[in-house]
UniProtKB/TrEMBL annotation:
Taxonomic superkingdom: Bacteria
Protein name in the entry: Carbon-nitrogen hydrolase family protein
PANTHER family per UniProt: HYDROLASE YHCX, NITRILASE-RELATED
InterPro entries the UniProt entry points to: C-N_Hydrolase, C-N_Hydrolase_sf
Length: 298
């Protein structure tokens, strides 16, 4: 499968005066990925918050007000990506939408669209400090995998990629591609997510597709600064990139694109230097369930 991951530049009110302008931008970006041969395109976390640019200054400068305002766009947002997935005949992971799930609480929900326009979703499970401080965002409570063509994929939204056990459960359910829509505002944050992606690829013998936000958006309390590079990542083993990096964006590049060979990934098990994926259960023997203090002795 040929996969494209976005280094998605956030635009402001001048470029996005209304939903129609936002929709035109999505169509341009996804058409660009399709022209590069992509069968799956991955957009970044917090994609829906760019809609804040379409509201007046008082709303877009207030996170809570912008969350309330974007809810009116939710149905049109779903229709937009379903239509683009159908027209472009590709799978699309539309980053994430902060969705009101009742009681004034929001979930950071990532939607994946199939070429027939149908969709599935995965909520973010672990909240960052920023999300906790917002006071209105709650974590999801379920893990999913889904079919993308002939193989299974799963989504870990940004911070979720830094936790091994949920991703392990997704891979044990058959996922061979982990999709990581991300948004980080510091170099440290970008590094943490990248290290998480590399580690999850190593542990599970899976590919990882990470998208990122880019640029500055001083009008938004959530999208103010954006760092990192989009990347496609593989396990570090014989026949695969020694550093795990298949391809990543550079500079002003919009997309990192590569063909992921899932047959080769499975075949790599036969001549692997290490087998972290198969040796996973060996961590659980009784003597390493708990670490004990040990004193120095002569």
């Amino acid at each position: 499968m040929k996969v494209a991951v976005a280094k998605y530049r956030i635009d402001g009110p001048d470029a996005l005066p209304d939903f129609a302008a936002y929709a035109d931008k999505q169509a341009r970006w996804l058409a660009e990925a399709q022209a590069m041969g992509a069968q799956l395109a991955v957009l970044p976390e917090y994609l829906s918050l760019e809609l804040g640019a379409t509201f007046d200054e008082a709303i877009r400068g207030d996170l809570h007000a912008s969350l309330v305002a974007t809810q009116a766009c939710h149905a049109a947002w779903l229709d937009l990506y379903a239509r683009l997935a159908r027209e472009l005949r590709m799978h699309v992971v539309a980053g994430s939408f902060l969705l009101d799930v009742g009681r004034g609480r929001y979930r950071n929900r990532s939607y994946a669209f199939a070429p027939d326009g149908s969709h599935v979703w995965q909520d973010k499970l672990r909240l960052t400090g920023f999300e906790k401080q917002a006071g209105v965002i709650e974590p999801g409570d379920a893990l999913k995998v889904f079919e993308t063509g002939a193989m299974r994929s799963a989504v870990a939204v940004c911070y979720d990629s830094e936790f091994p056990l949920p991703v392990r459960a997704q891979c044990e359910a058959g996922a061979r591609l982990l999709i990581v829509p991300s948004c980080t505002d510091t170099e440290a944050g970008a590094t943490r997510v990248r290290v998480g992606c590399l580690a999850r690829a190593l542990e599970n013998r899976c590919f990882v597709a990470q998208s990122v936000t880019a640029g500055v958006a001083p009008w938004s309390p959530a999208l103010d600064v954006n760092t990192g590079e989009a990347a496609l990542i593989a396990p570090m083993d014989v026949g695969l990139p020694h550093d795990g990096m298949i391809v990543q964006t550079r500079g002003e590049q919009h997309w990192a694109v590569a063909t992921l060979d899932f047959a080769a990934l499975e075949a790599s098990r036969a001549h692997a230097q290490v087998a972290n994926d198969r040796d996973w259960s060996s961590q659980y023997f009784p003597s390493v369930q708990r670490a004990k203090m040990s004193a120095f002795a002569r």
